């Protein structure tokens, strides 16, 4: 795992250098350095503004004894986004901007949730909660499934993860 992280960090640093050189050859070295400094200042300002909002939301939730929920995730994304904006590099600036701006933060949150949930072992994933409701029986309705007049038929079952279901289908001839 550590080897992959080091490899990914090295590739990201190399990509940042390549993008920096390409931008410098396109608009000039002075303008590129100025753009990098401007994005750092913008990141600092966005971090201060969005970070204050996120911390206020967390404080309010703690005061009301509510679970932090999405506010805690937002605070983490804002911290990561601010750090990426403060570091030099245009790729990190774009990703940091996506983390800092509220309209685009849900995209990063959804992507991270999908990636992390896919990597968790099945036993560490949260339980599945299923709510069932009984509907009143309509006499004479075709396909109502009633065993006795006025009483709906109840079907017992279990929830099986898709991976287990595929394994069962392959095991049966």
Automatic annotation (TrEMBL):
Keywords carried by this UniProt record: Membrane, Transmembrane, Transmembrane helix
Annotated GO CC locations: membrane
Domain of life: Bacteria
Transmembrane segments: 7-27, 33-50, 71-91
Protein name per Swiss-Prot or TrEMBL: FxsA family protein
Source species: Geodermatophilus sabuli
């Amino acid at each position: 795992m550590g080897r992959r992280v080091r490899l990914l960090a090295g590739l990201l640093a190399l990509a940042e250098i390549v993008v920096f050189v390409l931008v410098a050859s396109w608009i000039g070295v002075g303008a590129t350095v100025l753009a990098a400094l401007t994005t750092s200042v913008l990141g600092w300002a966005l971090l201060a503004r969005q970070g204050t909002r996120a911390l206020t939301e967390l404080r309010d939730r703690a005061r009301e004894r509510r679970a932090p929920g999405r506010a805690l995730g937002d605070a983490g994304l804002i911290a990561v986004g601010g750090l990426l904006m403060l570091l030099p590099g245009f790729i990190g600036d774009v990703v940091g901007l996506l983390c800092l701006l509220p309209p685009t933060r849900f995209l990063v949150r959804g992507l991270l949730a999908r990636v992390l949930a896919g990597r968790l072992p099945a036993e560490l994933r949260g339980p599945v909660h299923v709510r069932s409701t009984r509907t009143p029986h309509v006499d004479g309705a075709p396909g109502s499934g009633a065993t006795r007049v006025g009483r709906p038929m109840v079907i017992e079952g279990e929830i099986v993860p898709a991976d287990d279901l595929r394994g069962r289908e392959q095991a049966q001839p």
